[in-house]
Amino acid sequence: AGAQFVQHYVGFAQPPSGVRLHYVVADPGSWLYFDRLRPLPTSWGSCGSEKTCRFRWQTLDAGRCPQANRWKFGLEALP
């Protein structure tokens, strides 16, 4: 819950002018995306806890998953 909170805070934080902040988010239960691009593994077989997963960015297919860009994964229907 803490990593999700930090990630969502970063998405909407407005620090004072001249202040530079750096955030490190580690292992949240969900990721907030700012557009319709999502990482898609090039081979699901190569993804695992002991392997490096290669991916490419792909635009969401709204027909296949119409709610994929809704809050808490995207910026549609914000609370």
What does this structure look like?
- With 79 residues, the chain is of the alpha+beta class.
- A two-stranded antiparallel ribbon has the order 1-2.
- The radius of gyration is 15 Å and the shape is globular.
- InterPro entries: AB_hydrolase_fold.
SSE map:
Elements: H1 2-12, E1 37-41, E2 55-59
Antiparallel strand pairs: 1-2
Number of strands: 2
Strand content: 5-15%
Broad structural category: alpha+beta
For the largest sheet, list the strands in their spatial order: 1-2
Give the averaged pLDDT, no decimals: 82
Q: What is the H/E string?
A: HEE
Largest sheet: 2 strands, antiparallel
Tell the overall outline: globular
Give the low-confidence spans.
Answer: none
Distance between the termini: 17 Å
Contiguous helical run count: 1
Give Rg in angstroms: 15 Å
Helicity range of the residues? 10-25%
InterPro entries: AB_hydrolase_fold
Features:
2 strands, 79 residues, single chain, AB_hydrolase_fold, 14% helix
